[in-house]
Design goal:
mainly alpha; DNA Binding (I), subunit A; 9 helices
């Protein structure tokens, strides 16, 4: 009788063979439906222990992946960003029939992705599931921060003031020692530490001027945000300051109103007293005459 480990290994090998055969047959059917000029080979995703399967490309990205090397060879003098723009323009003017092969390829890959993702998630432990959820939240928070930063840039939010060292680094970065950015920054930090105090004072004064610039620009920008109804982009400290000022103004207005009411009441009482005295004087005079 064969050992248990040998039987287990044989079963595992047969399972893998069936998986590869099914993947190959699906690829053959898929390639026969779509033209080879439009379709890149669909990678059969296998169960991964190191990480989840990668999400498949959509139709547009498949088109970009196919056209980018062709356009790069045809236009070697054009920058990569300009090539992507040209490809995007081509995609926009393509007919639905021209886009269909790429969209169908994307749908097929998406179906395969769902199968592989379910297979991957089924083998995870509770701790791994929790870790993946944490990583997903971190990725979402990072994307949200990037989107917010891009929005603030588009709305013209002023740049924060620079430190004395940042100003020094921007002025001397080109001639700094080192071939990489990290090496240049390290050498600049050493040079900064070796500067005399009177040499650093120049950059300290520039940093103070930059603070004043930022203070004026951010105030104007936040006032503009209030005008267009984007109070959500205003700093917390600005909001708290405005609330304090509004509260003080309300209190001052209340005190002034109370003082005015008190003065009015005092004036009325004095007027009433004078009227009472005048009427009593007239009564006395009338009595004497009688």
């Amino acid at each position: 009788m064969a050992p248990l480990s040998l039987v287990t290994a044989s079963v595992s090998l047969l399972a893998k063979s069936f998986s590869v055969l099914s993947c190959t047959s699906s690829l053959a059917r898929y390639s026969s439906v779509l033209p080879t000029a439009y379709v890149s080979t669909v990678r059969c995703l296998t169960t991964q222990t190191s990480g989840p399967p990668k999400r498949p490309l959509n139709g547009y990205m498949r088109y970009v992946q196919q056209q980018q090397p062709i356009m790069t060879r045809q236009n070697p003098e054009i920058k990569a960003n300009d090539i992507i723009r040209k490809i995007a323009q081509q995609w926009r003017i393509m007919t639905p029939e021209q886009k269909q092969p790429f969209e169908e390829a994307s749908q097929q890959a998406r179906k395969q992705f769902k199968v592989e993702l379910q297979r991957y998630q089924a083998q995870l432990t509770p701790a791994q599931v929790e870790q993946e959820a944490l990583e997903k939240r971190q990725r979402m928070a990072k994307r949200k921060a990037i989107r917010k930063k891009r929005e603030l840039t588009n709305l013209g939010k002023p740049k924060r003031p620079r430190s004395p060292f940042n100003i020094f680094m921007s002025e001397h970065f080109e001639e700094a020692r080192g071939t990489t950015t990290q090496a240049k920054m390290k050498s600049l930090l050493e040079d900064w530490r070796n500067l005399f105090s009177h040499q650093k004072q120049v950059y300290t004064q520039l940093a103070e001027d930059d603070k004043i610039r930022y203070k004026n620009e951010i105030k104007s920008w936040e006032d503009h945000m209030v005008e267009i109804g984007r109070e959500d982009l205003i700093r917390e400290q600005t909001l708290s300051t405005k609330k304090k000022l509004a509260t003080r103004a309300a209190k001052t207005g209340t005190k002034k109103a109370q003082a005015a009411n008190k003065a009015s009441a005092t004036g009325k009482s004095k007027t009433n007293e004078k009227a009472a005295k005048s009427s009593s004087t007239k009564t006395v005079r009338t009595t004497k005459k009688t």
